[in-house]
Design brief:
The complex is a heterodimer of chains A (197) and B (178). Chain A contains 9 helices and 6 strands, in the order E-H-E-H-E-H-E-H-E-H-H-E-H-H-H. By secondary structure, chain A is of the alpha/beta class. With 178 residues, chain B is α+β, with helices and mostly antiparallel strands. Chain B has one domain. Chain B is built from 4 helices and 8 strands. In chain B, strands 1, 2, 3, 4, 5, 6, 7 and 8 form an 8-stranded antiparallel sheet that branches. Classes of the chains: A alpha/beta (197), B alpha+beta (178). Chains A and B meet through helix 1, helix 2, helix 7 and helix 9 of A and helix 2, helix 3, strand 1, strand 2 and strand 4 of B.
Chain lengths: 197, 178
């Protein structure tokens, strides 16, 4: 499998929504425990951004049934998750049925790294459809923490106040009403100090 | 007499239904998606010069670590004080926009706690900026002087009382209605 490109869910959704060609296949690689939640987030966001119907396929017993359901939703953007249970043999079966999957609309697979490798090893022909369309969810918590730190630094620069001073004023009920301070407190994990004291 | 009546009137205005509640998306994900979709569409139709791939990283959100029902959304600089450079959404009419909001999503309860939507208009235009502010609910200010929800029409000292608007209502106004 090609090296996946790091992305956020929003960036991935934008790419899927603005894919110029019908019939593109995209894969998003995520930690196994996050597959269901990530697929759900994509299914929530994609119809709004793409302004098209999105069909989420997550329950199927075997490759044959998966192919049948994908074919049935050929008019929609299709998000497939729940592939974690596929064995190498089932991936191989899916590969052998690939001709029935040609001419679909955009199809998105949400996969764990383990299944991504299995897809690559056992469904080489279908894997080739993903060429250039394989993405990996970046480390969300690390990125969010970096953004939070940058935002707090910007508040401190703009006001010449420290986090401690802002908390102290909020506790004393003397913090200015400016909306920025509510955001500041929330980013410090002190949303409890916003509002009447 | 006149001042007292004005204060009473402003308090009534602030308490009136619709000034304290606004339509808000049903979930945090929906709210953020709704804002993102609006901005991407504004980019697509040329209202925003900022490209979709620049909008995505600019629009951020985070839940309060201790109070996960408290949401913060921000886009662009913390304040727009006319500084050169910085991260903003750029409008094709020469304006630039930044905003942030804090909201609470606790089960059935969903409400805006505060927001700031700041549009700095192209150089030479008057007023130079428009800013919709929603202050946290402290109740210490006289609504006549500093209503909780207000519009700054180009001056930090002037606050025009207005209803609490949803984020998309404000963005529609600032992007398409000025």
């Amino acid at each position: 499998m090609r090296t996946p490109v790091p992305t956020s869910i929003s960036e991935f959704v934008l790419r899927a929504a603005t894919r110029p060609a019908e019939g593109d296949w995209l894969a998003l690689i995520v930690p196994e425990r996050n597959v269901p939640a990530t697929a759900q987030a994509i299914v929530t966001e994609l119809p709004t951004i793409a302004k098209r119907k999105v069909n989420h396929i997550s329950e199927f017993d075997n490759p044959r049934e998966l192919v049948r359901i994908i074919r049935h939703s050929r008019e929609s953007l299709t998000v497939v998750s729940g592939l974690e249970k596929f064995s190498p043999v089932e991936w191989n079966t899916l590969d052998s049925m690939r001709s029935r999957l040609e001419g679909m609309s955009t199809v998105v697979f949400v996969l764990s790294e383990r299944q991504g490798t299995m897809l690559s090893d056992n469904s080489p022909n279908i894997a080739s459809w993903f060429a250039g369309g394989i993405w990996q969810l970046e480390d969300g918590p690390a990125r969010e923490e970096e953004e939070r730190t940058e935002r707090l630094a910007a508040f401190r620069r703009a006001t010449n106040l420290t986090d401690e001073e802002v908390v102290k004023r909020a506790e004393a009920g003397t913090l200015d009403d400016e909306p920025a301070f509510a955001e500041w407190l929330a980013l410090l994990g002190r949303g409890d100090l916003i509002g009447p004291r | 007499m006149g001042l007292d009546e004005a204060r009473t009137s402003a308090r009534h205005l602030q308490d009136r239904a619709g000034l304290t509640e606004s339509p808000l998306a049903h979930s945090i994900d929906e709210l953020v998606t709704e804002i993102r979709a609006l901005l991407l569409e504004a980019s697509d139709d040329g209202t925003l010069l900022t490209a979709p791939f620049e909008i995505i990283p600019l629009l951020r959100h985070r839940r309060d670590r201790r109070n996960p029902e408290t949401l913060t959304v921000w886009c662009g600089e913390t304040f727009d004080q006319g500084q050169e450079g910085g991260q903003f959404l750029h409008l094709s009419n020469g304006g630039r926009l930044s905003f942030s909001l804090t909201a609470e999503y606790a089960g059935q309860v969903r409400r805006l706690i505060s927001y700031r939507f700041h549009l700095r208009r192209a150089a030479g235009l008057s007023p130079a900026f428009l800013r919709f502010d929603l202050n946290p609910e402290h109740g210490v200010h006289e609504p006549l002087d500093e209503p909780r929800c207000h519009l700054h029409p180009g001056s930090d000292d002037i606050r025009i009382q207005c209803p609490i608007l949803s984020p998309t209502e404000i963005l529609h106004k600032l992007l398409y209605g000025i």
